Amino acid sequence: MILKIITVVSGFIFISTIIYLLLKRRLNERHSIYWIAGAAVILAISFFPQILNYLSGIIGISYPPTLLFFSSTMIMVFILLHHSIQVTELQDKVRELAQVLAILRLEVGENNGIKSINAVLTKGEAAVTREEAPPC
Amino acid sequence: MTNVIIIIPAYNEEKNIRAVIERIRKNIHFDLLVINDGSTDRTPQIVEGLGEKVISLPFNLGYGGALQAGYKYVVEKDYELVVQFDGDGQHNPDDIFKLVQKFYGGDADIVIGSRFLAKNDYRPGFFRWTGIRLFSLLIYLITRLRVTDPTSGLQAVSRRAFEYYARKGNFPEDYPDADTLVQMILSGYRVAEIPAVMYPRKTGTSMHGGFKTIFYIAKVTLSIFAILLRIKLRMGVVGKCP
Fold this sequence. Notes:
The complex is a heterodimer of chains A (136) and B (242). Chain A has 136 residues and is an all-alpha fold. Chain A has helices at residues 2-23, 29-47, 50-59, 64-111. Chain A folds into 2 domains: 1-48; 65-115. Chain B has 8 helices and 7 strands; from the N terminus they run βαβαβαβαβαβααβα. The radius of gyration of chain B is 17 Å and the shape is globular.
């Protein structure tokens, strides 16, 4: 009984933390969906531990908690991988932004004569960068 | 504006950059562009003081990221050739002419200044040396082309090649190395080498050392295999539109 209380309470704490973060906008909807789904699974298993027994029976696992460990590890690995993918994507975007920003900063300076130390600099065209997108 | 532009990526090089630029300017009047890679010292002020053009990145991107910013800039202009030159004083400005000459001799899109084709005081550390040898061998096995110094920062890059480099995702953020060369050679870009002088660094730290070197060698090797697999599986053949 105590075990059940502990699991149910931690499930609730988890789900309310997610919702709190969502409301505070420290987690966006796209990401919180996964976590809410995870919290729902935790809650479901805490209320009805029989689910675990039933599923292990089907798969053929003799010690039901192993299924819990296995599935939670797998889910965590996938979430981590998903985050690595997103970090890679963000790094690419940040680099692109930094480069474009730096170039524009030089060109705006040139056009407004801010960096006039370089007196020889002449540039007929306006500081409009052409479309960055490659043909493919 | 000249047809050739020298690009120098610099990160906290206030001790070296003045001498590097002054030595170049003694004989060479090509346009010059310094990419200040988020330096926290006086590197950009020194360069501006010398009357040279600087692109200042808002934070440190790494050697490859800085170079790529330079490529993005020159793509918009009418330059035919970019000469990459390191800001730490390791390279000899006289080699710039040799690179340019080799390029205008035709049949090369990328010309590399190799420290191993010339008599040099430069002696790389054991791991660095092993890495360079290994990369050299990998390039040979894959492309049947002998590139003795794939890690060299002294290179001349033609418009055809830098237009490719400038695009998002086509250039490594840390160091362009054997992986980049394999990709370019397999996409039909012609790579040539000339002997170049390479001095030992005077101040500052060298780029590679210790665990980082081993990690680096593993990363480049993985990157080469990824390139080969991508070509094999036709996942957006490099250099061409899928």
